[in-house]
Amino acid sequence: MANKCLSVALHGGAGAKRARDYSKEIVHMRGVIEAARDRLTAGASAVDVAVETVKALELSGLYVAGRGASANTAGRYELDACLMDGAAGDAGAVAALQGFKSPIEVARCVMVETPHVMLAGEGAALFAAEHGLEPIADPKAWFTHAGTFEDNHPPGKLAHGTVGCVVRDEQGRLAGATSTGGVFGKLPGRVGDSPVIGAGAWADGTVAVSCTGQGEYFLRTSAASQVAFRMRFLGQSVAQASQAVLDEIKAMGGDGGLIAVDAVGNVAMPFVSEGMKRAALTTDGEIVSAAF
């Protein structure tokens, strides 16, 4: 029998600064969660909702991912994304993708249409074009520059922005997805944690996770999968495991946050940065949306 215990959480990045007003993002995130709730209630799968939610965040231009991404030092927009289906163990990712509106859609296409997990650079773009995914006709007109060096950190300080979603559907299936424009002022070809399964996102039968922050630290700690392994092998709760991973990253000198949902719908949204734009639907039907 299907379990109607639905949960979904999203993040719009852990780069929030108290000097900025995020009221528009908070309203937008609530609306995206409401749409996700309605899709889940109608029987949509965790994977479908994770992709749709991240795509909505990408296309909004409000976050440093998708349309709101920042250019690299060569003036080009290289975008990353990944998706993992916890029920099937399937995953797809793209890295350093140029020229397409929704990196998460390309990542899903990689998962569904190829035997691979990740495509990168020119190969990812050729693949997206061959599969009819929507291109960006004019980058100068498309990108909204949701973040700048001035409102985050100076170049070279790993200033960051990412979006993500984790879902538990009515069948108890879990999925996690992450998409990013990367750190501000990044070198051409730089790839952080966001497209790397186990670092930027993870989903299995225990938990779904999406990370945001200074990706170099999340890579070094295998942050997303470490949450799952702490739960599976140490018996930690989703809240305990999530916080322990972030404490490790903080001790290394990094910052960021993550969202996670476990097999029974418990949601965790901790961060060790100044703020994290985030929203969630909990198992009791409550919706929360906040930046700090």
Characterise this structure:
With 292 residues, the chain is an alpha+beta fold. It has one domain: (Glycosyl)asparaginase (Glutamine Phosphoribosylpyrophosphate, subunit 1, domain 1, 4-Layer Sandwich). 32% of the residues lie in helices and 23% in strands. It has 8 helices and 12 strands. It has an 8-stranded mixed beta sheet. Strand 3, helix 3 and strand 4 form a beta-alpha-beta unit. It is globular and about 45 Å long. The chain starts with 6 loop residues before the first strand and ends with a strand. About 3% of the residues have low confidence.
What are the SSEs and their pairings?
Layout: E1 7-13, H1 23-41, H2 46-60, E2 79-85, E3 90-97, H3 103-113, E4 118-120, H4 121-130, H5 139-142, E5 162-168, E6 174-180, E7 201-203, E8 207-213, H6 215-221, H7 223-234, H8 238-251, E9 256-262, E10 267-268, E11 277-281, E12 287-290
Parallel strand pairs: 3-4
Antiparallel strand pairs: 1-5, 1-11, 2-3, 2-6, 5-6, 7-8, 8-9, 9-10, 11-12
For the record, the count of structural domains works out to 1
Query: Class in CATH?
Result: Alpha Beta
Number of helices: 8
Structural class comes to alpha+beta
Strand order, main sheet: write it out: 4-3-2-6-5-1-11-12
Order of helices and strands: EHHEEHEHHEEEEHHHEEEE
Shape: globular
Question: Main beta sheet: strand number and arrangement?
Answer: 8 strands, mixed
Q: What is the assigned CATH homologous superfamily?
A: (Glycosyl)asparaginase
Q: Architecture, CATH level 2? A: 4-Layer Sandwich
* Alpha-carbon distance between the two ends: 39 Å
The CATH topology is given as Glutamine Phosphoribosylpyrophosphate, subunit 1, domain 1
Query: What proportion strand?
Result: 15-25%
Radius of gyration: 17 Å
The low-pLDDT segments are 147-156
